Amino acid sequence: MAQTLYDKLWDAHLVKQRDDGTALIYIDRQLLHEVTSPQAFEGLRLASRKPWRLNANLATPDHNVPTTLKERSAGVSGIEDETSRIQVQTLDDNCDEFGITEFKINDIRQGIVHVIGPEQGATLPGMTLVCGDSHTATHGAFAALAHGVGTSEVEHVLATQCLIQRKMKNLLIQVDGELQPGVTAKDIILAVIGEIGTAGGTGYAMEFAGSAIASLSMEGRMTICNMAIEAGARVGLVGCDQTTIDYVKGRPFAPKGEQWEQAVAYWKTLHSDADAAFDKVVTLDAASIEPQVSWGTSPEMVAPIKGKVPDPAQAADESQRKSWERALEYMGLKANQAITDIQLDRVFIGSCTNSRIEDLRAAAEVAKGRKVAASLKEALVVPGSGLVKKQAEEEGLDKIFIEAGFQWREPGCSMCLAMNADKLGQGEHCASTSNRNFEGRQGYGGRTHLVSPAMAAAAAIAGHFVDVRNF
Amino acid sequence: MQKFTQLNGLVAPLDRANVDTDLIIPKQFLKSIKRTGFGPNLFDELRYLDEGFPGQDCSQRPVNKDFVLNQPRYQGSEVLLARKNFGCGSSREHAPWALVDYGFRAVIAPSFADIFFNNAPKNGLLLIQLDEATVERLFQEVEANEGYRLLVDLPAQTVTTPSGEVLSFEMDSFRKHCLIEGLDDIGLTLKDADAIKAYEAKRAEQTPWIFS
Ligand code: SF4
């Protein structure tokens, strides 16, 4: 019978189907970070349990790590914020105690979990992968079944190498056609979320397919799957093709020699069959997608760059009207205001959505030979990992950014969720390449606008949003 | 984990759709390495007028009197009535920990986000899904009647209103069993250790690179 990619991955990892409708699913890889793991390790200790399969796990600190060289140079002990320092130290201690491989704070391989997994080849096609972080959907770009899980589930996977799951339904997002120049993967996913809403994918595994997706690089596919969760889907997926295989080849954790050949033969089967049935299909025309900017406090509140902030009087229903009004108030915006009129205080280029080499190249291309607007307080570029940073420096991207007036930082989550020192002040507007524009996400009272790296760089130069296609 | 069978709880209405986990418990409180103590910071940005910090004495902070949980009539509430897509956003289990630590035992909403839906019952927090029209009606009843309580009966899968109306809800049998018995999932899964080992042996032949 014709199967979807999700069906294939599910079947391959089914340990046991239980009568009550739940299933035990085997987990090939778990990524760990400092925020959602301490209580899981504590749970293991309290129950005198050991990790089931040590080498399935890989850890790195990312959420809390400072990004200035000054604070980073002394390692963990140099982290000024005491609670952050304790959390990072606790991860180190737990990994040492249990024998889990960890890329510690100043290891060149350290970075955001969702950047380092693929970069190391620790994320492979056909795997099941979990992490105590909702953006684990990112890894689905490799035709891997990747779930974000809570801390109890982190502990469950550590102890049993399995997850208790119910099978989800299949949703296909079909994006055909060619993107306009200056329009990127980030704009595709923001447009999708604008279309189906933040709960549109709830209960589904969301597969992205079509010619526009096939022509994306792995970085672009990761950006798209990363934000599947913003559309409510715990799992995002893209089928495996030559682009996937080329990306994985030669990475440190990737199979080698004879096993490589065997793996590739298997990976080539990891796509939905041509006549597989999906429970729901949404189609988008790539050519009609414009650069997107979020104006509100939910990722579904997006508008094309040439558009306007919506008018609550035009809302579809009472509940939408209320949430638009609340969002406008929080964001300090007026109905019908042009998106290009939104003035910015800060710009953040980074996060697991857009901090890979291709993202930095796209931003640098816009920034090259230009200057950050004097009205901006700060424009940050935070690479996703030590290795991304190194590569960018080899390509001279750091110099382009620094000359333009951006700050070039050490890798981590940084201003994506502001658990470290990088945050927005109250009422400040930020063009951000991250994934969430929730109230307070980037700092208390901060106002986030989600955009692509090229759009963020252009906004930094102009001091307000501009259409990168005219730049 | 605390067992859940029956509860006759005071209801607090949170009239807002898409309540995200950042709103339930802001990130600065995620720096704790414990599972408890999050209650005073539940809905921190809605409850207080200033910015909260971990470890602070919340009793000294300026409170937002308009926020529902700060209103005298909702003190001691154990059932949270909410709107659609409750718990969207991050996977932080700190969200159910904060709700439970505050004193909530159940949340009623038309829909819940997937990860939150998985996390909550593992912490003894019962999530009850009722259709949108019913939830709307409950909102009106709660707001109109001070001291409004709902009788939640998990074994029977019913919610009974003060007027005696009985509303049924769906619940998967695994979650129900674990909640009623206060069972730890890990212990249950480890009963299948042989099945897990057999799976690993089979997969190690099919996909050896995963296990090498
Ligand atoms: S970069 Fe942001 S979204 Fe990604 S893992 Fe870090 S905090 Fe989460």
From TrEMBL, chain A:
Catalyzes the isomerization between 2-isopropylmalate and 3-isopropylmalate, via the formation of 2-isopropylmaleate. Pathway: Amino-acid biosynthesis; L-leucine biosynthesis; L-leucine from 3-methyl-2-oxobutanoate: step 2/4. CDD domains: IPMI. Gene3D superfamilies: Aconitase, domain 3. PROSITE patterns: ACONITASE_1, ACONITASE_2. Keywords: 4Fe-4S, Amino-acid biosynthesis, Branched-chain amino acid biosynthesis, Iron, Iron-sulfur, Leucine biosynthesis, Lyase, Metal-binding. Its EC number is 4.2.1.33. It comes from Marinospirillum celere. Its cofactor is [4Fe-4S] cluster. This is 3-isopropylmalate dehydratase large subunit. GO terms for biological process: L-leucine biosynthetic process. GO terms for molecular function: 3-isopropylmalate dehydratase activity; 4 iron, 4 sulfur cluster binding; metal ion binding. Belongs to the aconitase/IPM isomerase family. LeuC type 1 subfamily. Coiled coil: none annotated. It catalyses: (2R,3S)-3-isopropylmalate = (2S)-2-isopropylmalate. Heterodimer of LeuC and LeuD. Residues 7-463 form the Aconitase/3-isopropylmalate dehydratase large subunit alpha/beta/alpha domain.
From TrEMBL, chain B:
InterPro entries: 3-IsopropMal_deHydase_ssu (IPR004431), Aconitase/3IPM_dehydase_swvl (IPR015928), AconitaseA/IPMdHydase_ssu_swvl (IPR000573), IPMI_Swivel (IPR033940), LeuD (IPR050075). Belongs to the LeuD family. LeuD type 1 subfamily. Pathway: Amino-acid biosynthesis; L-leucine biosynthesis; L-leucine from 3-methyl-2-oxobutanoate: step 2/4. It comes from Marinospirillum celere. The lineage of its organism: Bacteria, Pseudomonadati, Pseudomonadota, Gammaproteobacteria, Oceanospirillales. Residues 1-132 form the Aconitase A/isopropylmalate dehydratase small subunit swivel domain. This is 3-isopropylmalate dehydratase small subunit. Its EC number is 4.2.1.33. Catalyzes the isomerization between 2-isopropylmalate and 3-isopropylmalate, via the formation of 2-isopropylmaleate. GO terms for cellular component: 3-isopropylmalate dehydratase complex. Pfam families: Aconitase_C. Heterodimer of LeuC and LeuD. One of its GO terms (biological process) is L-leucine biosynthetic process.
